[in-house]
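Researcher: Last one for today. Full complex below.
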Amino acid sequence: MNALVFDGDDDYEVRDVPEPELEAPTDAILEVRCAVSSGTDKHLFDDPAVEEGRILGPEFVGVVHETGEAVTAVEVGDRVVPATMTHCGDCFYCERGEWANCTDGGWELGYTRDGGRAEYARIRYADENLFHVPDGLSDEEAVLAGSSLPTGWDGARRGDIDPGDTVAIVGAGAIGLCTLACADLYGPLEVVVTDLLDARLELADRMGADGTVDASETDPLEALRELNDGHGPDVVVEAGGFEETYELALRAVRPGGTVSVIAYHDDTYGTPFGDVWSKNLTVEWGYVDGIDVPKALSLVDAGRLDLDPVLGERVALTDIEGFDRLESPENPKVVIDTQR
Amino acid sequence: MNALVFDGDDDYEVRDVPEPELEAPTDAILEVRCAVSSGTDKHLFDDPAVEEGRILGPEFVGVVHETGEAVTAVEVGDRVVPATMTHCGDCFYCERGEWANCTDGGWELGYTRDGGRAEYARIRYADENLFHVPDGLSDEEAVLAGSSLPTGWDGARRGDIDPGDTVAIVGAGAIGLCTLACADLYGPLEVVVTDLLDARLELADRMGADGTVDASETDPLEALRELNDGHGPDVVVEAGGFEETYELALRAVRPGGTVSVIAYHDDTYGTPFGDVWSKNLTVEWGYVDGIDVPKALSLVDAGRLDLDPVLGERVALTDIEGFDRLESPENPKVVIDTQR
Amino acid sequence: MNALVFDGDDDYEVRDVPEPELEAPTDAILEVRCAVSSGTDKHLFDDPAVEEGRILGPEFVGVVHETGEAVTAVEVGDRVVPATMTHCGDCFYCERGEWANCTDGGWELGYTRDGGRAEYARIRYADENLFHVPDGLSDEEAVLAGSSLPTGWDGARRGDIDPGDTVAIVGAGAIGLCTLACADLYGPLEVVVTDLLDARLELADRMGADGTVDASETDPLEALRELNDGHGPDVVVEAGGFEETYELALRAVRPGGTVSVIAYHDDTYGTPFGDVWSKNLTVEWGYVDGIDVPKALSLVDAGRLDLDPVLGERVALTDIEGFDRLESPENPKVVIDTQR
Amino acid sequence: MNALVFDGDDDYEVRDVPEPELEAPTDAILEVRCAVSSGTDKHLFDDPAVEEGRILGPEFVGVVHETGEAVTAVEVGDRVVPATMTHCGDCFYCERGEWANCTDGGWELGYTRDGGRAEYARIRYADENLFHVPDGLSDEEAVLAGSSLPTGWDGARRGDIDPGDTVAIVGAGAIGLCTLACADLYGPLEVVVTDLLDARLELADRMGADGTVDASETDPLEALRELNDGHGPDVVVEAGGFEETYELALRAVRPGGTVSVIAYHDDTYGTPFGDVWSKNLTVEWGYVDGIDVPKALSLVDAGRLDLDPVLGERVALTDIEGFDRLESPENPKVVIDTQR
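Model: Here's the assembly. Have a good evening.
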């Protein structure tokens, strides 16, 4: 089958690889319908966990093609999205509903195991990790439901937004935009988004942001602190992923507020306690769990969550050039047609 | 001054009564701008706590006319709404944020003390009980903020609605409609309203209900139990006030769900444990607290809460006949122009 | 094998019945070590769900004797307690952690299916429903961990006890006493127990109650309302099971407090809204979930929960007379030696 | 009057200073009964907010000596402890119960304003900031209730300890020891304390720690990670105040756990996201609020909180030499007799 794989150096390439096969009675094989990608995936090329030949892509929609004998929750022909955080359902952490901490799982799809930018993909613990797509949704409407959407959901949820709260989102990439959509489920007074890129802020506008701050022109710390009658936001979601955005979030939030760190961080960043310790903050950080994916899909189906602006143009799996061409801030997620 | 008072028998009458005066250094006198009333107020005529000559009306907007010497949070000329639940701010309950349980307060405006259907009204513990109205709001847009709106807010809040939940509201009077508006702040998948009166359900439609059940034509228990894929609503708010509506709420909610009883109940009603005990319910019941009034006013000001359909036609304080004429399901709250 | 069964009339009898067999790949067969019983079990004889010949007893300890091929979490020889609320792990409710509402389970052990007062017992969904007993515990120390202990745990947990709260427990049967032990895990200022039977109150004393109210001598409503500086208890756990105890709980709790109804109720009881509606109560009622059984077992093992006073004398499974002889308030739970 | 003041250089000295006077109608003057101090107070000498001549000491017990005319909650002769976090009761933050963030208060006693190591002390907003001491308590039993005890209480509370959780406390100074006492109110399975000083760990032993780790001999990270069946503690309270202890807390806690940072931090510390981001942590940090002081005092009065080991020997206010002599790990808090 065709697959988009890491070439071991610094790029993708299309290869003809063997189709995946069932390896355990709890596995399922999906025929992939479409996947998404984005320019930021390329930072994985520097991660030693990503081996040459790895099929990338944690985020896709598929149809169940084959199931192991122990699989009971899905059947051949079901349309599904896989959870980005593979989880076994039985370990110390799964018993507590903390899927991302699963001792036999975690993020592996398109990272330590093959993902979905291919014609077929294998899913472990299929009963636990596959979610049915409502009939009313197109493949594209569902494609973010395994990863970007629940990441935004968790970013908003962990922010502990109360009705009437003022919320700021730092970073308007796919995760930040999904957080924007989900923050609205908590009845905020105002959601303001900041980013350095004008194209991203336009997307935030289209998705209903109450305000945007172009950090390339305005000091975002000053702008965010003016919110909420000058107290600063009640909740800040850090969806940027840099030391600067982490610091901005901590400094901008009002005393007693909550910072939800949902962007991926893998370095040692300074926490400026001298300035923020006395603010009595709650800080939540981490991966997506995905435990609310069925609810999120229902809300997309009901028209209460509209993620369309996050999706960019469509490109064939084998069209590497098209893929490169489409990468841009206006296209947070390029949609990959895995059957072409 | 003119005031609409209980005649001691079974009706209102307009009387010329003395203007209220400051009685404690923490008092304030308001010049009332407008008040609201509804047909259901008349059940108070049977309550022994309501004496002949009482000025009714817990729900109004006014401008501060005079303040006691200990009042610091409001000034003459400020436009304000009073909290329906008078609270002292210092007792065992106020320290816990439970205003409705205040040992020197509770519901007294228009009940055990004079209310606001008059040209002037006295407010006790003014610093605690008056909320500023944002400049952008008309008197009418703010008039429900002291009582009906926070009752609906508390009804929704105590329902503990999670994003994606299915919610049912039993009863589409002013309280039920305000609950409908506020439920939307919690990201529900679907909010369905049931009532016996078609005119009320039309108002629910106008306010954005996802569905309505006309209980005069359809068995509401059956209809509500079909929701949520046949599990029944995750949350039911009882805003009806009858034994039948209380039972409906308990029977309709799904196992493990929450029933928020926000309608006023003053009788002994049967709780059908035989049918519902094993459902492991959480039941919340009680008065409004009003602790979130400032947030509610901000959300009205931002256009996120629209209570306009709850308000009916406008009538002069002295126009008793007009008042009777306007009482109807289409007019959940008649607006009283207290300066005419 | 020997089993203690319902004779179809109004008593138990010992019968020689076939040993249970595996019926599904997720089943396990336990060799029962010991079970417990109490006089109140006899109310089940009137319940049409309990058929003639039913082996009673939801509460026992056993050793895994045989497992279905799909069972992975326990092995032959493991010492375990079964969850009273059988749950499948995969349904709408199990996904939400609401085991008691499982659509393919709920209370069935010793009720709608055979229980554990026998030499062997079959457990459905063994991976979900069996909990390992720590080595340091005797069979008797673990025997309440499947039902009475988690019921008391849930009774206390649902009461939402904050450190420093005043707690009252209505009813000092096995459930009430287990609630007493568990309430202490929430840092209460004072836990007071009321019952009609002096022998029960002596057990409460032995288990560390800070006070007891003998309702046969003192008006319990008056006595409980004097607690908490005259405000009444912050939390009342109803562990009695009668309309009188339900009413007592509602009337005694302070305004704004929480009533946790953990006793079994199967009738329609009057809820005196006229007296308690304005108290703004939270009421939680329902079955045990059992989700915290592993934690509860750890705390027993660590000596932080001591349930010894709940257990009465030991009797052989076949000694029906001894069993009747031991039933008494001093013996909330008679321990049944299932291998004699 | 005599007062122990900062000499402007690097030490304390005893001075004869004017008695404080009422400056606002909401003030009260206390006759100080006793105060506490500790060696670590001396780090304040480097803080520019602490001026020459400042009377240090946020933590003391006194008797009300004089009250402003607006004070109603305390009377002359009442024995009280002041809240360390002065709060006005009316600002944006006080309305939310966030006293430590008060815009007209915060930590000022013995910091930006005179504290209690003197014969008399002035308290602002006396109605808000004074708590009555139960009659049954000695001055010494109550002296920690304004600051160290509620800091430990908040440290435990923010850790969100569930019954059965494994807790680690990093640092066994006065704050860590108070946290140890308060952690027990949440029903933990096990509370383990680590410190570098053997004398401190002995105090932790005396206060009921389930285990101690001497970090001068054993790698504390390794030792803490072995807890909880090798998952690491569910909750870690950072009561040390160094970059090393902050890092230890983050690295030791189990995935999905909570870190409560209660020690004072005023520098920029590295947060090792590379190692801990994927653990999905909740981190709470900040000052004490003190909102639960009345409950804490009640629990001390009831014998449920015993802080005696935290208190060291007693010294006269004027005995500077004795004061220096007593500073030691065995004496976390030296008790100062302010009337000698």
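Chain A touches chain C at residues 70, 72-73, 89-90, 97, 127 (CB under 8 Å). The mean pLDDT of chain A is 93.
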